[in-house]
Design goal:
Blueprint lengths: L1 H24 L4 E10 L9 E6 L5 E5 L5 E8 L1 E8 L5 E9 L4 E3 L2 E3 L7 E4 L13 E6 H6 L17 E3 L15 E3 L8 E4 L2 E2 L23 E9 L12 E6 L7 E10 L7 H6 L6 E13 L13 E13 L11
Parallel strand pairs: 1-7, 1-8, 6-9, 13-16
Antiparallel strand pairs: 1-4, 2-3, 2-5, 5-6, 10-15, 11-12, 13-14, 15-16, 17-18, 18-19
Length: about 350
């Protein structure tokens, strides 16, 4: 029994250390909630308490407003939050459904009205979609769009073409362009000048010729593992650097207090494909083609007996995708006579 407890404690420490390292060094895939607390006359209220709660994981964080009434929560994990402001002699104000996307600075201001602290005014209207806190130009593609839109080959980087000023790379040619890897041109810059990031880490392929894959990126998670990505095409922060082109900043899903998962398999074959004209003319049998993409994903809370029930503390997420392609390519050639 003692051995099990020690082992469980070691697992918790390792997980906490990994989470701490990610929070310190991988901050490019996070967001910010900021704002000002005022009274009804517009005067700022310093030392008021502001609390944010992640609606999926139950994570709670609190701060006290500065002398100018302002508060700032950064960096915080993307997701949907409840933000609450309170001060003695005023009614508690609460804003629900505050969505934070990658690199987004969400402005949440409060105007407290006199009353008992036990009285709460709940506002369910989401904050304005206009980002007035950052000068960057880009578009966030969220999980619903990533999962619902058709993707040949299930490569989420093709969705970069939904953004303004982005077109497929039909100019450069070669393996790294267009139809297989999702290479794109943003605002006229070549695909080599795009910057790929995954969970705040560098995801750029620096091999000459991009190796065997022909892709500008290294890791390509399954579509079902992507939470969202932000394609920034102009005036992005200096913290990214490196590239003159666009920044594809993607983040993977994480576990929540409820277990969620899915299984998938996508099949493509040659049943409805026609044979090549010259194959028919020569009486050659149509080439066989069978493609299977399969996998699964699951996430939820970590439960360790005798330590904690797992809720609001530690989470896991696992995904896997495999691909099998069986293809024959008949060739028809012409040989000159003697």
């Amino acid at each position: 029994m003692v051995y099990r407890r020690v082992l469980a404690l070691m697992l918790v420490v390792c997980a906490w250390g990994a989470a701490g390292a990610a929070r310190l060094f991988a901050q490019a895939d996070t967001g910010t909630i900021l704002g000002t607390v005022r009274d009804q006359s517009g005067a700022v209220i310093p030392d008021s308490k502001v609390t944010i709660t992640n609606q999926s994981t139950g994570l709670v964080d609190s701060k006290v407003t500065a002398s100018d009434g302002r508060f700032l929560f950064t960096p915080i994990k993307i997701g949907t939050y409840t933000v609450k402001a309170e001060f003695h002699g005023f009614r508690t104000a609460e804003r629900t459904g505050v969505t934070v996307d990658i690199q987004q600075q969400v402005l949440v201001d409060f105007n407290l009205s006199p009353g008992m602290v036990t009285q709460t005014v709940v506002v369910s209207t989401p904050p304005s979609l206009l980002d007035t806190q950052s000068g960057s130009l880009g578009q966030v593609i969220e999980s619903k769009e990533i999962n619902d839109l058709p993707l040949n080959g299930r490569n989420f980087t093709f969705l970069a073409q939904l953004s303004a000023g982005v077109i497929p790379d039909y100019i450069s040619g070669g393996a790294a362009a267009n139809t297989t890897t999702g290479g794109f041109i943003a605002n006229g810059f070549r695909y080599e000048q795009d910057n790929y990031m995954l969970d705040g880490l560098d995801n750029n392929n620096r091999m000459t010729g991009y190796g065997n894959t022909g892709a500008s990126y290294v890791a390509l998670p399954p579509v079902d593992a992507i939470q969202e990505f932000n394609l920034q095409t102009n005036s992005y922060s200096a913290q990214f650097g490196r590239s003159a082109g666009a920044i594809m900043n993607a983040t993977t899903k994480s576990g929540t207090n409820q277990i969620h998962g899915d299984l998938w398999e996508f099949v493509r074959n040659d049943d409805l494909d026609s044979a090549d004209f010259f194959q028919d003319a020569a009486g050659i049998t149509k080439g066989k083609y069978q493609r299977n993409q399969f996998g699964g994903a699951v996430g939820g809370p970590v439960y360790l007996p005798h330590i904690y029930d797992g809720k609001n503390k530690t989470f896991f997420f696992f995904d896997y995708e495999g691909q099998r392609i069986r293809q024959s390519v008949p060739l028809t050639t012409t040989v000159s006579t003697a």
